[in-house]
Write a structure and sequence with these properties.
The chain has about 375 residues and is of the alpha+beta class. It folds into two domains: about 20-50 and about 135-315, Multidrug efflux transporter AcrB transmembrane domain (Multidrug efflux transporter AcrB transmembrane fold, Up-down Bundle); about 55-130, Alpha-Beta Plaits. The protein is built from 13 helices and six strands. The strands form two sheets. Strands 3-4-2-5 form a four-stranded antiparallel beta sheet. β3 (about 85-90) and β4 form a beta hairpin.
Length: about 375
Amino acid sequence: MMSFAKWGNALYSGEKSYGIISARKKWLSLGLVLIAVSIAFIGIRGMNPSIEFIGGSQFTLSQLSNTSQEPAEKVLEQHGLTQGTKITQLGSSGLRIQGPEVSVEEIAKLRTDLATAYQVSPNEVDATKIGPSWGAGVTSKAVKSLVIFLTLVGTLMAIYFRSWPMSVAALFALAHDMFITAGFFALIQAEVSPATVIGFLTILAYSLYDTVVVFDRVRELTGDLTKQNEYTFAELVNLAVNQTLVRSINTSVVALLPVGAILFIGALLLGAGTLIDISLALFVGMIAGTLSSVFIAPATLVLIEEKRKRTSQHTATVLAARGEKEITVVAPKAKDIFVEPAKATEEEEFAPDVIPGRHLGQSAQPKGKVKKRKKK
């Protein structure tokens, strides 16, 4: 069985290759379907906004010996608060109780009754009243931040890569990640809090980074596309995706391990409810970002480039030289790609061949001049 390192080397050299770009229409169709399904979930089920967005009253109890939710439910029922309430366990000794907005006097009574029900001091009950105007301000700023971010990203990528198709493909991949993450939250009705919004913006940066890594390799391989007639644009993009595949996997694993630890160990086992909103957004978004940078963004780039005159003419020339009519992605060897090696210096040209892990013997060691001692 091939080791992971050998597998990565084989992908980079072109000895082993996966026809990811061959199925580019399937990947793009799948991405569009997932976006449509996510939009349907958002429209039908709707999002589950937290109290910060809709306003209400919140009570946080700490240092509890009993974290059962039954006493809190009885207190809320006594005050006529049976609709729109939510009780969440925080860690191993805390509770968070959220309900509709009530008066200041009612908040004071609820605080006292909750303290009595759980046999703690009223000082251990933190009461907060949040107005809906605060959530509206957060939403407005989040939308503005998203628009500014996407505008700057599209402009900078078009300037950096000197290619508007790469910019469009990257933005489509970002939209794919956002809709899938938001659709997943709507599907399971996970709470959307300001921390979730921060998580959404974070996964945009992560997805963009992974896409830029792939596109940077694409630019290196296709920079002198028309100077050769052996490989098409699609085939070189496929090589770039395969060459960066191991890096994408390693980056994703390293990023998902701490986020997964927070989500599964911290939130599920320890009951740290306050961490679910941001960690779940990061976990889902990072997985979607990795997949989009490998499958969606390169596929979109190739489909756009194939419509451009320069690329389509070059593809037709390559196919005519092969005697083919349709594009069949061939896996080019990395050594066959037109990259001129750097010229060796005079010292390197006459240096002995060094084999890693093997000693060349004493004869290969530099010899110094032996000084003769003068006789007294």
